[in-house]
């Protein structure tokens, strides 16, 4: 049995290597992405493992079928960049990692909000200039806020526990309410109700065609003045141009964006020697009340290990047994 993994980072390699040795399975590690140029590298392998937010190559699953590849195992949750219809048509099972560390992302979302509430960016700038005065940048307390959580899957539920631990009032919206959370009475009946009530809006839902630009100009107009926006989910959930306008008119008091709608060619790339052609992101980056991070909410030792090992074990299960607990499609 032979596996090949793409887009492998240095921090993932020890987990791949230890698993390969323990399971006596050859695993080839490739630092490149899986695209039209590298697709042919999968020839001769039983399983392909990948992790990328960009699109996968057209015709990939048909190619896998011709090559006898048994499974595509992705090391993340989201499948919005995969053609699952093509996967089914080619009879190539796809597995994902449905929960690698919900707490990693939930903790990060709260960490970013706390920085916004206490205006730490402004104070870092002031201290760098040797200005040690406080006023007028007075902070706010999380326990006095109503936090609106959109999406109450594993990550959303972890976030709710943390926010409740701070003493905040939590409300939530989800098309598919969790029975235990529903019994607590935290769900509001509509998205509009959440937008109107929340002092903080934090996104924890997958990206779908229906949720593209969930927070657009209309949504921002329904929010309370001075709301805070946290996005550790998917960039396309927020219309960036509308967010920038809402920041400028002070409808939004601050935003923490760990993901951005046009991030693929920017995040996790070294662009120090070259400019990037994205005027909206450029403007967001200089706002003292905006925190931009390059899709790192998941990025903890625990999460990385789980992503690698669960993906590998899922691929092995499909190759050996024809099934896995983490199948997205067959």
From TrEMBL:
Start and end residues of each D-isomer specific 2-hydroxyacid dehydrogenase catalytic domain: 7-328
UniProt keyword annotations, A-Z: NAD, Oxidoreductase
D-isomer specific 2-hydroxyacid dehydrogenase NAD-binding domain mapped to chain residues: 111-297
Coiled-coil spans in chain: none
Family of the protein in this entry: Belongs to the D-isomer specific 2-hydroxyacid dehydrogenase family.
Highest taxon of source: Bacteria
InterPro entries: D-isomer_2_OHA_DH_cat_dom (IPR006139), D-isomer_DH_CS (IPR029753), D-isomer_DH_CS1 (IPR029752), D-isomer_DH_NAD-bd (IPR006140), D-LDH-like (IPR058205), NAD(P)-bd_dom_sf (IPR036291)
UniProt lineage: Bacteria, Bacillati, Bacillota, Bacilli, Lactobacillales
PROSITE patterns: D_2_HYDROXYACID_DH_1, D_2_HYDROXYACID_DH_3
Pfam families registered for this protein in UniProt: 2-Hacid_dh, 2-Hacid_dh_C
Protein name, UniProt field: D-lactate dehydrogenase
GO terms for MF: D-lactate dehydrogenase (NAD+) activity; NAD binding
KW Zinc-finger (keyword) present: no
């Amino acid at each position: 049995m032979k596996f090949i993994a793409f887009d492998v980072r240095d921090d993932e390699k020890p987990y791949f290597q230890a698993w390969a040795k323990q399971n006596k399975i050859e695993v080839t590690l490739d630092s490149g992405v899986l695209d039209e140029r590298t697709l042919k590298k999968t020839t001769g392998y039983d399983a392909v493992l990948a992790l990328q937010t960009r699109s996968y190559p057209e015709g990939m699953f048909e190619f896998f079928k011709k090559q006898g590849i048994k499974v595509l195992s992705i090391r993340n949750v989201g499948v919005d960049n995969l053609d699952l219809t093509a996967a089914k048509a080619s009879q190539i099972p796809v597995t994902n990692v449905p929960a690698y560390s919900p707490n990693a992302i939930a903790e990060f979302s709260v960490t970013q909000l706390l920085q916004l509430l206490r205006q730490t960016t402004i104070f870092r700038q002031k201290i760098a200039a040797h200005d040690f005065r406080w006023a007028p940048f007075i902070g706010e307390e999380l326990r006095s806020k109503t936090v609106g959580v959109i999406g109450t899957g594993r990550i959303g539920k972890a976030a709710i526990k943390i926010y409740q631990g701070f003493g905040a009032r939590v409300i939530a919206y989800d098309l598919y309410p969790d029975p235990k959370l529903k019994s607590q009475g935290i769900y509001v009946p509509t998205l509009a109700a959440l937008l109107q009530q929340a002092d903080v809006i934090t996104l924890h839902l997958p990206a779908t065609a229906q949720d593209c630009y969930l927070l657009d100009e209309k949504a921002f107009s329904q929010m309370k003045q001075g709301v805070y926006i946290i996005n550790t989910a998917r960039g396309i959930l927020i219309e960036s141009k509308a967010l920038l306008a809402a920041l400028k008119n002070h409808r939004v008091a601050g935003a923490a964006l760990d993901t951005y709608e046009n991030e693929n060619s920017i995040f996790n790339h070294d662009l120090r020697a070259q400019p990037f052609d994205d005027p909206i992101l450029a403007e967001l980056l200089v706002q003292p009340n905006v925190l931009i991070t390059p899709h790192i909410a998941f990025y903890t030792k625990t999460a990385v290990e789980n992503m690698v090992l669960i993906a590998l074990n899922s691929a092995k299960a499909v190759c050996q047994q024809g099934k896995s607990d983490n199948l997205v499609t067959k």
